[in-house]
Amino acid sequence: MNTTTIDTTGSAPIEFYCRQEPPAHNGTLLGFWFYLMSDCFIFASLFVANAMLGTNYAGGPTGAEVLDIPGLALNTALLLVSSVVFGFAMLEMARQRKGAMLGWLALAGLFAAAFVGLEIHEFIGMIAAGATPERSAFLTSFFVLVGTHGFHVTMGIIWLIVLMVQAGRSGITEVNIRRLRCLSMFWHFLDLVWIGVFSYVYLIGVLR
Amino acid sequence: MSNPSAPGHSPAQGHEGAMHENHGSLRGYLTGFVLAAILTVIPFWLVLDHIIGDFKVAVFVILALATLQIIVHMIFFLHVNVQSEGGWNLMGLLFTITLVVIVLGASIWSMFNENNLMMPTMSVPIQQYHAPAPPHSPGS
User: Fold this and answer.
1) What would the pLDDT profile of A57-83 be if each residue is shown by its tens digit?
2) Do B74 and B86 fall within a single domain?
3) What is the arithmetic mean of pLDDT over A19-39?
4) Mean pLDDT for each consecutive 10-residue tract of chain B (140 residues)?
5) CB-facing half-sphere around the CA of A147: CA atoms within 13 A
6) Is A40 touching B (CB cutoff 8 A)?
7) A191–chain B Cβ distance below 8 A for any pair
8) Are both B97 and B70 inside the same structural domain?
9) CB < 8 Å to A190, chain B
10) CB of A166 closer than 8 Å to CB of A176
11) Residue B69: which residues within 8 A CB-CB, separation 6 or more?
């Protein structure tokens, strides 16, 4: 498996053209990639809604009043570390070390669970303070966008638990490798979407 | 459509098989982590310490840093490059970016314009809406 590595010395010409049909024997990963691309549209349209409605406070609280930037910093760090830790799990998977892989996966799941927990805590605090989703268009778009992201992360955690059980039972088989690589893409993708959320919705949201 | 004599699923096709074994490396993940952390800390610092006074400049800088960080994640975490999946990964990504820019960029553009055009009307005193209707359209 390691006898054929990608040439990184720069001697091979790097060209970008699709000289073959999409690889049918590995269609799942490519198909999952296209699913993520379609997910981009869901998030992109929610970002547009936030861009249009983000200043429609309707006399309610503004972004600077309700958005918690120190809490956001902790949340962002949790998700980033979770993403890297998941990468460590994938490295152990490539080495066929099941125990280490499951350990890193569990750690990644715990970080993501802490992220979701903090987010729910933030939502509950906002709603208790009167900043409910129906208060203004700004809050509606905020809750829908951040909530959709949090829902994705929650589903990712459930998926992670299922795959950990499967890998624990049957080991690092070809099927489990494929499933874990799909989840890996999903995991990193959600961290990528979060960049847009914390940059645009929160950091720019408190400025305007 | 597909070439019937195309190579099958044999694991022996070395070059093609290598494309699907890119799990990244420890160094790659750590490099990505450090870069992402730096690109995260800068915008937080800018906002929390009110470094940039001008709103438009601040928005531009924050969005530029976010774009950079997205590229870092794409390269070091998602391992997107010109060779992954024989180029089809990047092809799908470029297609998506194109559509997102066209559809959503145009949406933002037109909605902002519409907002701007609507604003003067909204500020007109409410009585003007109840002005007597022209005689030739009594029903409306």
Assistant:
1) 988 899 889 999 999 999 999 999 999
2) no
3) 81
4) 39 38 81 96 93 90 95 92 81 92 89 78 50 52
5) 11
6) yes
7) yes
8) no
9) none
10) yes
11) A195, B35, B36, B39, B40
Question: Does the residue B52 lie in any domain?
Answer: yes
pTM exceeds cut of 0.90: no
ipTM: 0.85
Best CA proximity match to A52, nearest among B138, B9, B88, B107:
B107
Q: Does A93 touch chain B (CB under 8 A)?
A: yes
Mutation target to probe the A interface, by most A beta carbons within 10 A, among B35, B39, B68, B88 is B88
Distance from CA of A130 to the nearest CA of B (A): 25
Q: What angle do CA B10, B12, B17 make, to 5 degrees?
A: 85
* 8 Å CB contact of B95 and A16: no
How far is the alpha carbon of B136 from chain A, nearest alpha carbon, in Å? 38
pLDDT per position as a tens digit, A147-204: 999 999 999 999 999 999 999 999 999 999 999 999 999 999 999 999 999 999 999 9
Structural domain boundaries, residue B109: 82-122
